[in-house]
Amino acid sequence: MAEQAQATDTGPRPIVPWLKLTPKPHLEALKCACGAMYLDPKRVACSKCGASDKFNPITLSDKGKVYVFSVVHQSYPGIKTPYVTVIVDLPEGISVRANLTEVDALEAQKEPNKIFNLPVELTTAVASKDREGHDVIAFSYRPSKN
Amino acid sequence: MRNVYVLGTGMIKFGRYPDKTVPQLGGEAALLALKDAGISIKDVEMFACGNLMQSNAMVGQRILQQVGQTGIPVINVANACATGSTAFREAYISVGAGMYDIAMAVGVEQMGKAGLLGGAGGGDPAYLTEGKLGSGTMPAVFGQAGIEHMRKYGTKLEHFAKISVKSHKHATKNPFSQYRNEVSLEDVMNARMVGFPNTLYMCCPTGDGAAAAILVSEDKLKQLAGGRKRAKVAASILTSDPWTDRDLTLPDVSTLTRRASKQAYEKAGLGPKDIALTELHDCFATAELVHYENLGLCGDGEAGKFIDEKGGVHPSLGGHAPVNVSGGLLSKGHPLGATGVANICEVVWHLTQDDRAKDRQVPNAKAGQAHVIGLGSACTIHVLTV
Questions:
Q1: ipTM above 0.90, yes or no
Q2: Contact A138 B129 (CB under 8 A)
Q3: What percent of chain B lies above the pLDDT cut of 70?
Q4: What is the rounded distance in angstroms from the CA atom of residue B164 to the CA atom of residue B200?
Q5: pTM for this one?
Q6: Predicted local confidence at residue B258, as pLDDT
Q7: What's the rounded Cα separation, in Å, for the pair A115 and A122?
Q8: What's the gap in Å between the CA of A136 and the closest CA on chain B?
Q9: Residue A116 pLDDT > 80, yes or no?
Q10: Do B196 and A71 touch (CB under 8 A)?
Q11: Which among B2, B10, B91, B285 could disulfide-bond with B33, CB atoms 3.0 to 4.6 Å apart, if both were Cys?
C-alpha cells in the first residue's frame, strides 16, 4: 500500500481541481438541481438558488465553442506573449476560461469573426513543475480536428 | 432618509507622489474639502475612508492623525474600484439616516507603478494559471467584455479607440488630470496592444491621488452654506453582481450596472435625458462603450453609433450627453480608492459652476451622475442635482 501511495505521489498534478487526468483528461463540474453549474468542486452552496444539498458531479464535454476572446500582449513577467485567452461555452451550459492554442494570435485580432463560435476541443500539456518536481498539467482548447 | 447635500469637495491632482504617504495624500484632500465647506475637522462627526491597497492599515485613523484626532467614529472601506464611492455612500447613509449631521468621505490611493493588476486566470487555483488557463489581467478581462459587444453588434476597434481620443481631449481642460495630452485616432489605434482590443491609450494608468467630500443634512446646509449653491445627493445606489450564466467565468459588469442605473433613475425621479453629464467607469475604453448602453445613454447596440457622433447626441463635451469630461479614468487617472470620490467631485463642480471645472464647464447642468464598477463586483451610482 505504501508503495502504491508513493507511486501516485510522483504522478502529474492537474493545475486546477476541476481538471481530471484519468481515464483521459476531462473537466468536471458540480450541477445544482436548479440547473446552475460550477467548476469549483468544494462549493458551499448554489449562488443561483441558495441550495447547499442539491449538487451532483457531472463530466463536461471535451468539445465546445468560443464565446469571446482577447489577445494578451502584456502579461506578468516570464509569461510568453502574445496568446489568445478565450471563454469557451460547453454544451452542458457552462463556460470555461482558458487559452486557445494552435491559432495565430495576430490573425485572430484581424478577423475576430473567425474566432466567435469556433468549434474547439480540450487538450492538455505540461505547464510547469511544482516544488516537489511533479509535472503540473494545464488544459487549453484548440480548433476541433474532427 | 433625510436629504443630504455636498457642502464641500477637495481633490489633489492625480499623478505620482512617491515622496508622500497615503495618509498625507488623503489628509491634503480632506483639508481642501473642509476649506471648501468652510468648516473645521472639529465640526465633522463621522468619517468614512476608502482605500484599497492598505485596507488592513487603518488609513482613516491615520488621516485624522494628520489633520485632527477628534475621536469621531471612523470606518475604513474597501470595495475594489468602488471603494471611494462606497465610502461616500457610507457617509451619505449616516447623515441621511439622521445619525449625524456632518460626515466626511475621503478616497485615497497610492499605487505607484503597480502594473497590470488582476488575479490568476482560473480563479482560486493552487498553481499560477496566468497565461496557462487564459488571463485574469484587467486589460484582457475588460478586453473580453468589449469583444462581447463586438460579437453581438459588430463593434469595431475604431469605436473603442474613439473613446480614448475623446477622453484625452477632455483631459486637456482638467488641471487635476494625471495626463493632459491629446491623442489622435491613429495614435490610439497604432499604440502598443495590451489586451486586444485595448491598446495602451485605451487602458487607464496607475497612479496616486485623493479626493474628499463633506456631506451635511439640510439643516446644516442652511446654517453653513451661506447662500452658496450646493448639490443634493438625489440617489446613492450600490449593487453587487447577481447570478448570471457566465459571471463567474467572464465577470459581468453590465447586469449590476443596469440594475443600479434603473434604481438610480427611479430614486432621483430622472431619466437619462435629464442627466447633463456622466462620469462613468472607463477603466478601459471597452468598459466605457458597454456602459453607454448600461446607463441608458443610448439604446442597446447603439454605442458604436453614439461614439461616432452621428446620432446628434454624443458623449463629447458640447454633445447632449457628455461622458467623462474630466478626462475619465483613461486620462485623469485611476488611483483605485480615490476614483469614486473624485468622480463625484467632478459632477458637483459642474452643477455648482465651481471654478475647478471652469475650462470644461457643462452648460446648464442641473443633474449629473457618477458611476463606478469594482470588479468582483460592486457598482455604485450617485445622482447629484441642484
A1: yes
A2: yes
A3: 97
A4: 10
A5: 0.95
A6: 98
A7: 16
A8: 8
A9: yes
A10: yes
A11: B10
